[in-house]
Amino acid sequence: MTPRARMVGFLFAGAGFAALMFWGLVGLPDFGHYHWPYGNALNAIATPERHTTNVVGATVFDYRGLDTLGEEFILFASVVGVALLLRKDDQARVPPDVVRSDPIRALGVLGVLLLFVLGLWVVAFGIVTPGGGFQGGVALAGAFLLVYVVGGYRQYHELLPHSPLEMTEAAGAGAFAVLGFVGLAYAGAYLGNFLGIGNAGSLYSGGSIPLLNWATGIEVCAALLVLFSEFLKVYMVPAAEWTPEKGPR
Amino acid sequence: MIPLQVVSIVLVGAGALAVVLQRDPLRQAIVNSVYALLLVVLFMIYQAPDVALSMLVVGSIAYPLVLMVAIMRVRDRGEETTDRTGR
After folding, report:
1. Cβ of A231 and B72 within 8 Å?
2. What is the complex's ipTM, to 2 decimals?
């Protein structure tokens, strides 16, 4: 196919796509004019029923909790898949990537602390403000990844040994499923809300939603770290091949 | 549509174009993070803080992380193959 023919083909396809896009966009309702039943029903009942001021969180961890359980295990299964594909027997590695600049390390430590506290806050207050287990979990993972960025492989590896990390990931995913069974026992339905709903706007609200938030936060944080550790292990050069002059490949 | 929304939409369009026009995958991952931040602003302007927060953590931590380690791995393997053919 000549470039010219390719260009003509693209122009036809592009014009058709643009027309369909435009047609679809024109049919959208105006911003702020939502008029379908489910969203309005949830907005009306979530806060009185569950005393949580984050309706998105209440929807995800309560009204459609089973769906979120599935999503959690999609992440879990994909991380297990990556770990299986990348696993190697050879474990002898050295850190070829230590950061030596003091200002960068100091700033990095500050960043690690800030991001860690931010992550905890986003998970804990997922019932009051926007946020929750997923977003907070990724922020927590980011804090640990910063340790690698401003420290080195050795610091990262000492802070997060591999097998406890994998166990933490499994425990987070498992806790969500187990909390579902607790709901089955005490509230009569799988993932039913089994705790008192507390006071709206405080840390004690939403019933079992905060517990599910924490389970998700731990799972997501550990899943991302397992993923990163697996890739990192493959990238690290075996000790015998590494010299200070040559550096990492 | 208020002017802020128009500015944000135009910026997101320009950002998307910048991601596509960058040819080097590693730089593309960085440009994509900037594009994700533009999307975060767009979501905030359209009053969707929860979506903005998800986009923020996925666009600036999770997605570039997965992309970069994958690129790193592929490049590493590419060099190994050239070494072997060279010998």
Report:
1. yes
2. 0.80
